[in-house]
Amino acid sequence: MKKFAVFARVIAIALCFLLLLYGVIAHAGWDLPFDGCVTADKVSVYQDSDTNSERLTRLDSDTVVTVIGVEQYGNRTWYKVLFDGNRRGYIDAKYVERQTVTLAYNTLLELDDLRLGTTEVGTILGVGTAVDVPQNGMATVIYFGVGTYSGSFAEGKRSGEGTFVWDTGEHYTGQWYSDRISGNGTLVFADGTTYSGTFQRGNLYTGTMKIVQRNGNVLTRTIQEGTLQRKATLTCTNGTTVEGQMDSSGFYGQATIKYANGDVYVGSLSQGLKSGEGTYTWANGAHYVGSWKKDMMNGYGTYYFTSSKKHNYIRGQFTNNNPSSTITYVSTQGIYYDTTWRNGKCVKITVQK
Known about the structure:
353 residues; mainly beta; SH3 type barrels; Histone H3 K4-specific methyltransferase SET7/9 N-terminal domain; 3 domains; 5-stranded antiparallel beta sheet; disordered N terminus
């Protein structure tokens, strides 16, 4: 019995260790390393994952670190990080937030790609001489080779409400904190693409993106707490709209397409093409209900010649938008016929017996 108690204790300790290890791995997200931002001022970096170890330095808010490991000590989760080049240390995980990357359509868009103009010397408009950036209050400052900022300063950094116009054509109007876009605002790119909502440390965190495509179409997507949502709307220059889900390959799953001429498709898409089951309704009321493949009627389906589903339809196999082989036709009088089709034309019709 004593041996069994010892064995049970060993098993219990092992289970606790596995659960702890699982918690650490789950916290890490299985995707180390990753870049993160320090979320508070004067956050301590320690030699080991213990507050009793040597303090190496303190990091300010918005400092970027690279998380290369995760450890659990006591009731705290610690990130092992790289900072100031190749220096290594440990930070309490609650003070580090993963940097967000926005996947928009099939292009990675990172606000950090924009030059935020951290130049410490500029020209205050109306004075015309190079001076230090104002410590506090409102001012308009030119950042040479970058752009112009008009708005509030605090402790020599852009903080509060302000507008920055980049020389490259982008402009942002909204809230700033410690020289970074942070808070509510709107960022407009040179091509007309617009990000609007809440920003954190230079990235859109929650809001709406209206992305102008090369052909002039506008793709509208939302991001919620740093995560890009699947729902998307595409507004084409010709008036056609697509509403549905999107990944890097295009629209997929259930969607609604409203064409400029009044036609409507409701059904499944794959890589932006009609595929699977769906209903296409023409502006005159005629509609097809059935299978699709490669953006065309393919497979079993029913084509109704009017908006009514009672009579006046053909039902059977379709190939590349055309009735195929022998299918059934039901007239407006409710009479059933066998019809034979070739190359999209009915070549034979007989009354069903």
